[in-house]
Amino acid sequence: MINDYYLAGIIDGEASFVIVFKKDKRYRTGIHVITRFTLPQKNKQLLEEIKRYLGMGRIYWHSRDRLWYFEITSYRELYELTTRICPKLILKRNKCLKMHKILEYILSGKHLTRDGLFKIMKVWAAPETGANPR
User: Fold this and answer.
1) Which pTM was predicted?
2) Cα gap 104→79, rounded to integer Å
């Protein structure tokens, strides 16, 4: 039976919170902020249960890794997930909280200015996330 604590354990062990800063002239700041949560598993059924439990995300097969992936890319859905799961995490709590803060900036439109974008980059590139600010 899936619950938030079981899910937090899986996330601590297997999942990734990713933010990519992609140069794109179509955006006002010239940068597109891409957020992603991924959870790889060999067991597709487990990912389907997680998807059903959360009511969001998508599942796809990655042939090179030979794994199934559960993925969330929507800013709003990621914000909902981080609100719900960050307090229950142990190993990835700091990274989750940083993602949550960045999603707050994005959802309030602060990422649409260069100053706001630099704040987001600064939060994400902090040493404890291990993130590469691309």
Assistant:
1) 0.88
2) 7
Query: How many whole angstroms separate alpha carbon 60 and alpha carbon 105?
Result: 29
Distance CA 106, CA 120 (A): 9
**For residues 106 and 124, what is the distance between their CA atoms, to the nearest angstrom?**
13
Q: 4-127, which class in CATH?
A: alpha beta
- Residue 125's pLDDT is what? 86
Give the per-residue pLDDT at 101.
96
> Could you report the average pLDDT of every consecutive run of 10 residues in the chain (134 residues)?
95 96 92 96 97 97 96 98 97 96 94 90 74 48
Q: Which of 74, 118, 126 is nearest to 97 (CA)?
A: 126
- Residue in 37, 19, 36 with CA at minimum distance from that of residue 121: 19
Cα dihedral: 92, 79, 73, 62 (round 10): 30
- Distance between CA atoms of residues 26 and 41, nearest Å: 35
DSSP state of 85: H
**Among the listed residues 109, 103, 134, the one whose alpha carbon sits nearest the alpha carbon of residue 24:** 134
Q: Compute φ and ψ for 60, nearest 5 degrees.
A: -145, 160
Q: Where are the domains of the chain?
A: 4-127
